[in-house]
Amino acid sequence: xxxxxxxxxxxxxxxxxxxxxxxxxxxxxxxxxxxxxxxxxxxxxxxxxxxxxxxxxxxxxxxxxxxxxxxxxxxxxxxxxxxxxxxxxxxxxxxxxxxxxxxxxxxxxxxxxxxxxxxxxxxxxxxxxx
Amino acid sequence: xxxxxxxxxxxxxxxxxxxxxxxxxxxxxxxxxxxxxxxxxxxxxxxxxxxxxxxxxxxxxxxxxxxxxxxxxxxxxxxxxxxxxxxxxxxxxxxxxxxxxxxxxxxxxxxxxxxxxxxxxxxxxxxxxx
DNA sequence: ATAAACCCTTGAGCTTACTCTAAGTCAAGT
DNA sequence: ACTTGACTTAGAGTAAGCTCAAGGGTTTAT
Lengths: 130, 130
Hints:
mainly alpha, Multidrug-efflux Transporter Regulator, Chain: A, Domain 2, 2 domains, two-stranded antiparallel ribbon, 2 strands, 67% helix, elongated, DNA-binding
């Protein structure tokens, strides 16, 4: 039921440096230490790391994640803020998905163009940068 | 048919600083200058900026974008590399889309939880970090 | 002809998010 | 006892991508 920092690093793909850095930044306020001063991560801590990953990869900077955690620590008086944050994040994700789709179309077009170009040995630009 | 750096900044949402920075990094090798040393952007340059935006937002670092541009400048001998780059980028976008969908599910779940919590005035954690 | 609003270059500075170094502690195995 | 390996701290260093400051030039309107 307890993981060392090295085990968590393997599980999450984050480096031990990064995990300590996250803790220093206030992102892991629940990680305990044993008698020798070693960090002991619980399953719940792994859950927090998953959430951090989720927020980070959807474009919330570490500061924003810390804000959320601080709100969480403050308790029920910040429920609305936390809800708003997730709603805001949902909008961001929707925007990102739309953008990615648009970019995907462009990339597919380029793949088409370049596949032909490779077959023909030369690229014909039809008033189009490529 | 010619735009000043300020006009391009407005059109693209990039700052004039960023545009000059991109040029310095070799990302805009086609931008000309007029007799007074002012940059004059063409429509084709705007096309390049769109492509840069596309590659940047799909996770290619500026160095990678520069590599592509260098290949472009080298001509037909690099067609295969450029095709490979776009194929690689397509894979990246697919991965990003899958990740975003996963994160969206988590965020939607949080919104559900927190919407209830706000209505009830308190958050019940069911063996779940939140 | 003078001010306002642009533009220029060089080079320094900033933010984010790590990433690493140095010096040391601790527990387990041989 | 001693080595190995994983851990600790504080603090320095790094890379990417801007962002700004200083000092100056040009164009346009009044």
